[in-house]
Design brief:
The protein has about 130 residues and is an alpha+beta fold. It has a domain of about 90 residues: Double Stranded RNA Binding Domain. Strands 1-2-3 form a three-stranded antiparallel beta sheet.
Length: about 130
């Protein structure tokens, strides 16, 4: 993954933001939407593209566009930076290699004795249930 290449491939859309700001909010376009075309990207390898599609399937449109919006700030420049940061964080998280889960270690105690104790305990609990007639 090449961050600078991804930043070059981003498209930005601006619109009027909601929320506080008075007249300022009614006349300026401060809300920023950063759009990234995953399939057409040269910054990601085919394997990375597949991982991103799997991890972010609910955020990617049918056209293969990953979009993130930001309207927390009153400045378009600040919202643009926040949107880029958010998008890069999403991609990094999608590409992070997950650790394999290790199962519990084999017990050294007598496994037959443990299983017998477990069976008796479950029978005891089953006897506390409703009686079927």
């Amino acid at each position: 993954m090449d961050q600078q290449q991804i930043e070059k491939e981003l498209n930005f859309l601006t619109s009027r933001s909601s929320g506080s700001g008075g007249q300022h909010v009614n006349k300026t376009e401060t809300k920023v939407e950063a759009r990234f075309e995953v399939d057409a990207s040269g910054a990601l390898t085919p394997a990375e593209k597949r991982k991103v599609h799997e991890a972010l399937a609910n955020r990617i449109s049918k056209e293969g566009i990953l979009s993130v919006t930001s309207d927390a700030r009153r400045s378009q420049v600040l919202n643009r930076g926040a949107a880029v940061k958010k998008l890069l964080r999403l991609i990094k998280k999608a590409l992070r290699v997950r650790k394999r889960r290790k199962g519990p270690p084999q017990l050294k105690a007598n496994p037959k004795k443990r299983l017998e104790r477990k069976r008796r305990h479950s029978e005891k609990k089953a006897l506390r249930g409703k009686i079927k007639i």
